[in-house]
Amino acid sequence: MCGRYGLNHPDPVLADWYRASFIPELKPRYNIAPTMEILAVRDTDSGRMGSMMRWGLIPYWLKDMKKLPVLNNARAETVAEKPTFRQSFRQRRCLIPASGFFEWKTEGRRKQPYFISSRDGTPFSFAGLWETWDSDTGETKESCVIITTECNALMQPIHDRMPVILSQDTWDTWLDPNLRRDEILLSLLKPFDADRMQAWPVTPAVGKVVNQGEELFRPLISEQEGGLFDMS
Fold first, then answer.
1. End-to-end distance of the chain based on CA atoms, in angstroms?
2. Of 34, 141, 127, 142, whose CA–CA distance to 79 is shortest?
């Protein structure tokens, strides 16, 4: 799964990285959680652009927001089949930039958070789907979901799922709104190359959404190694 991530790459860097004509002004965010507004990149008639969307898909057919299910992630294995996702999968795909993501590893009676990022410092590009929801009162809301897949060798000791991370050479295919062939799209939804990733334990403070700051990305050093954080 993917339930928490961060993005601290500046918007000009992201605009260049994605060859986007527009990326909204961003502030560094070190602890992004579901229901928050997040950056999504998609291809439009005006070129490649970034937009802020709610993390947590709101199906276009939903009538009552009080009955909104939890739709932060979509499984790659079923995304083309499930009624909630299949139309977005064929028509409304996006990239969700991340400087790295968090996952929790069960260690005895506690869970230790890990931060996972790219070895070369470039942003991850999660495979996402987006949707537009219109209420009866005329309110319009754009939302998105992150697709997950089975873990790779690096993630296997930490968790059995991970977000689908798309390489640059697949972006044009994934974002093409005219491409609707399931077999081509599904072939992209595979675990990212483990050799291009790195992971380390971080402070449990990331477990609380109110906690922000670059220290959440830093490697946790145990007391035995003279570190700053209490592992007990």
1. 26
2. 127
Point out the residues that are catalytic.
Answer: 2, 103
Consecutive H or E run containing 127: strand 124-134
Question: Does a structural domain hold residue 112?
Answer: no
> What CATH number is associated with residue 61?
3.90.1680.10
The answer to the question of residue 226 being in a domain is no
Which DSSP category does 99 fall into?
A: S
Number of separate domains in the chain:
1
Could you give the CA distance from residue 230 to residue 232 in angstroms, rounded to a whole number? 6
pLDDT in tens, 46-86: 999 999 999 999 988 887 777 788 899 999 999 999 999 99
pLDDT attached to residue 135: 77
Q: 188: burial class by Cβ within 10 Å (0-12, 13-18, 19+)?
A: middle
d(CA 36, CA 128): 15
pLDDT, one tens digit per residue, over 94-151 is 999 999 999 999 988 899 999 999 999 999 999 999 999 987 777 899 999 999 999 9
Q: What angle do CA 213, 38, 110 make, to 5 degrees?
A: 55
Q: With beta carbons less than 8 A apart as the criterion, state whether 83 and 57 touch.
A: no
Measured distance CA(83)–CA(150) in Å, rounded: 21
In a domain, 210, yes or no: no
